[in-house]
Design a protein that fits this description.
Blueprint (H helix, E strand, L loop, with lengths): L4 E5 L4 E4 L5 H15 L6 H19 L4 E6 L6 E6 L8 H4 L13 H8 L2 E8 L5 E9 L5 H4 L3 E6 L9 E8 L2 E9 L4 H16 L5 H11 L6 E8 L3 E7 L3 E6 L2 E7 L15 E4 L5 E5 L13 H4 L3 H12 L6 E6 L7
Antiparallel strand pairs: 1-8, 2-3, 3-4, 4-6, 5-6, 7-16, 8-9, 9-10, 10-11, 11-14, 12-13, 12-15, 15-16
Helix pairs in contact: 1-2, 2-4, 6-7
Length: 345
């Protein structure tokens, strides 16, 4: 049945590497600025700054190769702060979330404060022995009365090449009725012209995200004829199956706790230049499955033998784990993870 369209196009992800204690202040400022840009009211921008500060401090004291990824939530209103590192992990995760617990001689209120201030907080930690080593966390802050946006089964990270402000990748998600449609665009090359091509394709996506996928991609092709062109991948999630239409190097995979169930790459061609008639692939979507859509800035090798720990991550943390651990730093990189929209009585 038809229903309201919920959609958003989010800017590239702000990345703050926690390689020195001074980065804690930068993380707090970035979170405060993002919260204000998202229109979060009242004390929420200051709460976002506190959450970022606590997560960054935790990375500074306990982790290696720690980074915060700060951005609007992928779907709905609000913002999120993702934390990722490469170890050593938290052997007693539940105790670490309790006020007063510390291993560094501090007051031990960091993660407890994050749990209280965030609308929704998810965290997982691997300590080796066959699992990914490290900790991944996602704190979402949404406007009062809009908890639903914080609980959406969607995650994404979109990163520009180091040293560049413009990102040639882009992504968007839209809910239309009982389906969820997600798109990842990869403008050829990187920089301003690639970003313009990707943004123009997403503008086409948002004119009617519920229309047939082949029509969506064909509309993008027409709109991008005066640009350098792009790769495009669009996936639509139903309760029990998914559809994919792609041109170029955007991949889609369906993963469950048991492993990778489906994997597809777009047809050869360039949206806006030389594109074959788009073909829509339909494949099963097992219960609890997650669709992973990513540009070639994410190394496809992650899917050859993913660990059970990685496969069990919720969408918000899976996107952070893939971007943090499998990014190709010389290219723009985008990963978008999604499950079908939840039905409400």
């Amino acid at each position: 049945m038809d229903g309201p369209v919920i959609r958003t196009t989010v800017p590239p992800t702000a990345q703050v590497r926690i390689d020195h204690h001074s980065a804690v202040h930068l993380a707090a400022e970035t979170a405060r600025r993002t919260a204000r840009a998202c229109g979060l009211p009242g004390a929420l921008p200051e709460q976002a700054a506190v959450v970022a500060s606590e997560l960054a401090t935790n990375l500074d004291k306990h982790a290696s190769d720690g980074t915060l990824y700060i951005q609007p939530v992928p779907l709905g209103e609000g913002m999120e702060i993702l934390a990722a590192d490469r170890g050593p992990g938290m052997a007693e995760l539940e105790r670490c979330l309790t006020d007063g617990y510390t291993t560094a001689g501090t007051l031990g209120v960091g993660l407890g404060a994050v749990t209280r201030l965030a609308t929704h907080f998810a965290i997982r930690s691997g300590t080796g022995a066959g699992a990914e080593v490290g900790t991944w966390a996602c704190a979402r802050l949404t406007p009062p009365g809009d908890r639903g946006a914080a609980l959406q089964g969607v995650g994404s990270v979109c990163l520009a090449v180091d040293g560049e402000e413009d990102c040639g990748d882009a992504r968007a998600v839209a809910d239309t009725g009982d389906t969820r449609t997600a798109a990842v665009l990869d403008g050829l090359g990187h920089g301003t012209q690639a970003a313009e091509a990707a943004a123009l394709a997403l503008r086409v996506f948002h004119t009617d995200p519920g229309r047939p996928l082949g029509e969506l991609v064909t509309g993008m092709h027409r709109a991008l004829r005066q640009t350098r062109g792009a790769a495009a991948g669009v996936v639509r999630l139903h309760d029990d199956h998914a559809e994919y239409c792609g041109i170029g190097n955007v991949r889609v995979l369906i993963v469950t706790h048991q492993g990778v169930q489906s994997r597809l790459t777009g047809q050869p061609g360039v949206v806006g230049w030389s594109m074959p008639a788009p073909h829509v692939h339909r494949f099963p979507l097992p219960p609890g499955a997650t669709a992973v859509l990513h540009s070639d800035g994410i190394d496809a090798g992650w899917a050859r033998a993913p660990s059970p720990f990685l496969l069990r991550l919720p969408p918000s943390l899976l996107s952070a784990a893939l971007a943090h651990g499998h990014r190709r730093i010389r290219d723009d990189a985008t990963v978008l993870t999604a499950r079908p929209p939840q039905r409400h009585p």
